[in-house]
Amino acid sequence: MGNLSEHFDTSEFGVSCRCGCGFGSKVEDTNPELWKALEELRLALGSKPIIINSCARCKDYNRSVGSTDTSQHVIGNAADIVVKGKTPREVANMAEELWPNTYGIGRYSQFTHIDVRRNKARWYG
Length: 125
Known about the structure:
Shape: globular
Number of domains: 1
Order of helices and strands: HEHEHEEE
């Protein structure tokens, strides 16, 4: 479908909205900075594969999973990820080292949320 970065392309699992509406299936639906950030994180974590659980979401699906219309997911700026061989805590800690003053980092028990907003945002889910 099209490369987003060295290790990610638009056919990656979880990139398109899970409701099947098609949002996220086009390269222009996601921010190129997100893929650059995920590549940077992958390298910092020893080139461990990143699994994208959720990325671009339409507003309807985003609401159905309990999120808001202002979520970074609905503008293609966010990914919920798991990294093989790393705990979500380790992933979030490395993201914090890489981007101490910018981006969004959400810490959850089963995954890590990364988004490329301009301001710093941190939370526990």
